[in-house]
Amino acid sequence: MLAADVGAALLDRYDNSAPAECRARDMRKELTQVLKLAAYVQTFLYRFDREEGQTMAEYAVILSVISAAVLLVLGVLSGNISTVLNRIADAIK
């Protein structure tokens, strides 16, 4: 609801028997309260709409997948790596 719609609703709510200055003051007061309530609701809903934590979870998943892949490759190639290191050590002697 736009502020103009709220203002129009407030105009319909007050009768025309009160002086115009009193009606305007009461409408401004009520409009201020409605806008403050809307700001509080937006702030409250923003707390649930944040996505800061999701990026850390995504990084954790990617890191665990990469770590698992590196360990798997080292496990599969450990025999070949050992052979290559032994050949290098023999060549240095």
Topology summary:
Blueprint: H1 3-13, H2 20-49, H3 52-92
Helix pairs in contact: 1-2
Fold and architecture overview:
- With 93 residues, this protein is mostly helical.
- The protein folds into two domains: 50 residues; 42 residues.
- The chain is built from three helices and no strands.
- α1 crosses α2.
- The radius of gyration is 35 Å and the shape is rod-shaped.
- The chain starts with a helix and ends with a helix.
- The relative contact order is 0.05.
- The model has no long low-confidence stretch (mean pLDDT 79).
Count of discrete domains:
2
Say how many strands there are: 0
Strand percent estimate:
under 5%
Helix-strand makeup class: mainly alpha
Q: Helical segment tally? A: 3
Average pLDDT across residues?
A: 79
Task: Please estimate the helix content.
Answer: over 70%
N-C termini distance: 83 Å
- Specify the overall morphology: rod-shaped
Which spans of ≥5 residues are poorly predicted at pLDDT below 50?
none
Seen as an oligomer or otherwise, the chain set is: single chain
Order of helices and strands: HHH
Largest sheet: none
Rg from alpha-carbon coordinates: 35 Å
